[in-house]
Design brief:
By secondary structure, this protein is mainly α. The protein has three helices and no strands. Helix 2 packs across helix 3.
Length: 82
């Protein structure tokens, strides 16, 4: 079982990502984002790490913004598992 990252770790990585810009995700530190993505079921290994983190962030924005449920599942809330 993997440990979830601390709030400080996540906010630090998100701050770095915001400064560099989303297109430079691969250049940012992302251990905490990867751990959160894995816990939420978005990342399953190194091959889908960047896509998984991107999906995690999209789901978080959708949830914070009051957007609709993910299109691929009607009653699925992947962030509830994180």
């Amino acid at each position: 079982m993997s440990m979830l990252p601390s709030r400080e770790e996540l906010t630090g990585e998100l701050r770095e990502l915001r400064q560099r810009g989303f297109p430079r995700l691969r250049l940012c530190p992302r251990d905490a984002l990867r751990a959160a993505g894995t816990a939420a079921g978005f990342c399953t290994g190194p091959d889908d790490e960047l896509d998984g983190i991107e999906d995690l962030l999209r789901a978080a924005v959708r949830r914070l913004g009051g957007g609709g449920e993910p299109r691929d599942a009607h009653d699925y809330d992947p962030l509830a598992r994180a």
